[in-house]
Amino acid sequence: KYRELVENVNDVIYAVDESGVTTYISPIVESVLGYSASDLVGRSFAEFVHPDDLQYASEGFLNVLSGNSTTGEYRLLTKSGEIRWMRTSNRPMFKENRVIGATGVLTDITERKRAEERIEHLNTVLRAIRNVNQLIAGEKDSKRLIKGACNELVETRGYFNAWIAMLDESGRLVTTAEAGMGKDFKPIVEMLKRGELPDCGRRALKQSGVIIIEDPPSTCVDCPLAQKFSDRGTMTVRLEYGGKVHGLMSVSIPRDLAADEEEQTLFRE
User: Where do the PAC domain residues begin and end (predicted)?
Assistant: First the structure.
């Protein structure tokens, strides 16, 4: 009856031996990680921990082997390669006063983590916007202004990278600035010098809203940046003042945030 109870709770219950090899895991794991219980039994739990979190998870396991109960949060990789955040609670298993392994509970906290990351990101973007507004108020040199704006958007960790292209009334390139891209930006500059624009730029010049690209490789086939930053989304907007269009600004962000309406509203500012 205890097995039936364990196998009908939403959290994943598991047991590992002193080497970290899974000896039991509840069937609900398949709905969380995509692996059946039989896929995981006999395999090291460490195989499924995100590489960046492996040391943290290993230190926690060693703590359990020392006889202590532990809790922690780290990422696991699903069968399809997706990342899921887990909260773990572990306690040692004893036999004749010797630790022979551990039992634990895994709780999927991915949605909570995503919500926290979204709030943190939006707050970071707000700080960047305030810094850019201060820059606009104090900087009179246009080239330093756009370079400073790009730097602020990236250095506050609001965006992965940012670029601005200033255009004259006929649409010809006047100057550019970027942050977070380095030499990867050069093909875009050459493209702009030829009077060409990537798809996001062409669309942004035709409308006042934010142009969202969630999957650059399939959408922006003519953009030299699409393959280099294929795992990210982009937002592009035209720069307007006094009823005139003065150029373009584009930023790279986590793909899952690109369609966020609040994110777009902040970017338009």
Answer: 70-121
Domains of the chain (ranges; CATH) run 2-108 (3.30.450.20), 112-268 (3.30.450.40)
Q: What is the pLDDT of residue 228?
A: 74
pLDDT at residue 51 in the model: 94
- The per-residue pLDDT for 255 is 75
Measured distance CA(259)–CA(59) in Å, rounded: 38
Q: What is the DSSP string of the chain?
A: -HHHHHTTSSSEEEEEETTSBEEEE-TTHHHHHS--HHHHTTSBGGGGB-GGGHHHHHHHHHHHHTT--EEEEEEEE-TTS-EEEEEEEEEEEEETTEEEEEEEEEEE-HHHHHHHHHHHHHHHHHHHHHHHHHHHHH---HHHHHHHHHHHHHHTTS-SEEEEEEE-TTS-EEEEEEES-GGGGHHHHHHHHTT---HHHHHHHH-SS-EEES-HHHH-TT-TTTTTTTTEEEEEEEEEETTEEEEEEEEEEEGGGTT-HHHHHHHH-
Q: If the chain, 269 residues long, is cut into consecutive pieces of 10 residues, what is the mean pLDDT of each piece?
A: 55 94 94 94 94 95 95 95 94 93 95 88 82 80 89 82 90 91 90 88 86 78 75 85 87 77 72
What is each CA distance from 146 to 13, 35, 175, 186, in whole angstroms? 54, 49, 9, 17
Buried/exposed 140-149: b ≥16 CB within 10 Å, e otherwise = eeeeebbbbb
